[in-house]
């Protein structure tokens, strides 16, 4: 049986460099270009140089490829197999000495290398940060299985891919510095975020996120535009967990306007229409609503409207860097998303179409409202233990007025049922204010 292209690649890069012919390296350029996005835009001669002068390394399962704290002298690209990244927190003991001691054991447990950050398969590039920043290794990398690695030493790295990776690092750094969501972060945590972001490019017509598919990442738009569309009629079947929540907690959101519960032909035609929601451009984000609200599937479809460049943050990094270390950034993200959701609802506003979108928006509003209302309630109870809805407190009256509520149906003590009414009224009130503002500015008629 004839050897595969992969076998030919391994046969060539396993040879001593002086035995690799120009003809062999020339033939492998198309395969290497497709193998990794980093290599896709490099010139033919640069890739030929890379193939002729790289090193080949085969690592066994559980081999330590990179140790945190070591001096970086090479970059790696995974040709086959999977690797995992681990980061140790700050410790009193020197990291290098600690890891040398761990690695001296016959079979060290993986949790001793620190927190598992993520795992990646073929096509993954790692070890570049220490070369870009001229710093020590920021993480440990272990082989999950037998891995074939293409290795670039510092000299080869400098003359082939340094310029591309350095430009990407600068773009990511500038994005993090300019984005208000991350403005309060320490330099150390900003650097961790820059390392965690990866850059991706898409051409016109490519689908970045498809409605109903699992949510894995938040995409931040660096350049270009994307179009967001949504088929509202699919939300009930695609989001069963959300729908169950709505039926249990906020059945008031489910429309009962149809006679006898029947759907007319006109209704079916209207509801099956795909709605074009918006165009998103630089500094906007995709998939953030679902990840912030812990929704497992995309609520809409995002399609590239022209060539677009994105920075991708996967869910694990979001939980590690934002949820655990910077909850205030999650709140900033929620505020941005609340405004966007209200704008979306202003375009979709129809009781039979927007049940899920209304509920998601209410969940965004809920965190803010529930904490404020609970705080006001407990403060008022300490002052006036016998408050009831017939002897309404001034604080409660102000809250009710702000939420556009009727005092007859509102208790100053806020049990679950009355909280639901408050959140429903708050959503309607916010939408009314937004519609008035949009009409005033001539954005809708």
From TrEMBL:
Gene3D superfamilies: Jelly Rolls. Residues 38-178, 181-322 form the Cyclic nucleotide-binding domain. It comes from the Eukaryota. InterPro entries: cNMP-bd_dom, cNMP-bd_dom_sf, RmlC-like_jellyroll. PANTHER family: CYCLIC NUCLEOTIDE-BINDING DOMAIN CONTAINING PROTEIN (PTHR23011:SF28). This is Cyclic nucleotide-binding domain-containing protein. It comes from Octopus vulgaris. The lineage of its organism: Eukaryota, Metazoa, Spiralia, Lophotrochozoa, Mollusca.
């Amino acid at each position: 049986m004839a050897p595969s292209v992969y076998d030919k690649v391994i046969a060539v890069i396993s040879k001593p460099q002086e035995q690799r012919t120009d003809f062999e390296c020339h033939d492998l350029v198309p395969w290497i270009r497709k193998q990794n996005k980093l290599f896709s835009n490099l010139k033919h001669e640069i890739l030929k140089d890379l193939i002729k002068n790289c090193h080949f390394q085969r690592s066994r399962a559980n081999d330590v490829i990179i140790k945190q704290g070591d001096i970086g002298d090479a970059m790696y690209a995974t040709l086959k197999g999977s690797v995992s990244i681990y980061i140790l927190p700050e410790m009193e003991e020197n990291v290098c000495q600690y890891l040398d001691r761990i690695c001296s054991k016959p079979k060290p447990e993986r949790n001793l290398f620190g927190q598992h950050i993520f795992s990646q398969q073929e096509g993954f590039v790692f070890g570049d940060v220490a070369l870009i920043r001229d710093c020590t290794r920021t993480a440990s990398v272990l082989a999950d299985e037998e891995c074939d690695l293409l290795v670039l030493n510092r000299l080869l790295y400098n003359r082939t891919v340094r310029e591309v990776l350095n430009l990407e690092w600068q773009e990511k750094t500038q994005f993090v510095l300019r984005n208000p969501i991350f403005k309060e972060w320490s330099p150390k945590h900003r650097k961790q975020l820059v390392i965690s972001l990866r850059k991706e490019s898409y051409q016109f017509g490519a689908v970045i996120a498809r409605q109903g598919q699992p949510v894995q990442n938040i995409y931040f738009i660096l350049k270009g535009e994307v179009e967001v569309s949504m088929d509202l009629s699919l939300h009930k079947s695609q989001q069963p967990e959300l729908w169950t929540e709505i039926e249990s907690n906020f059945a008031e959101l489910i429309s009962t306007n149809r006679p006898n519960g029947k759907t007319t032909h006109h209704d079916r035609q209207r509801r099956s229409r795909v709605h074009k929601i918006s165009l998103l451009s630089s500094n906007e984000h995709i998939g953030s609503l679902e990840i912030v609200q812990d929704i497992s599937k995309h609520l809409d479809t995002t399609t590239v409207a022209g060539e677009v460049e994105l920075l991708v943050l996967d869910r694990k990094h979001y939980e590690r860097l934002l949820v655990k270390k910077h909850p205030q950034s999650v709140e900033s993200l929620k505020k941005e998303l609340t405004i966007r959701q209200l704008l979306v609802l202003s375009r979709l506003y129809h009781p039979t179409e927007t049940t899920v979108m209304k509920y998601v928006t209410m969940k965004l509003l809920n965190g803010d409202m529930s904490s404020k209302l609970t705080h006001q309630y407990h403060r008022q109870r300490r002052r006036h233990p016998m408050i009831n809805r017939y002897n309404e407190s001034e604080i409660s009256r102000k809250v009710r007025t702000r939420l556009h509520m009727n005092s007859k149906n509102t208790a100053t003590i806020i049990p679950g049922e009355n909280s639901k009414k408050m959140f429903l009224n708050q959503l309607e009130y916010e939408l009314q204010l937004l519609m008035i503002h949009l009409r005033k500015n001539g954005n809708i008629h």
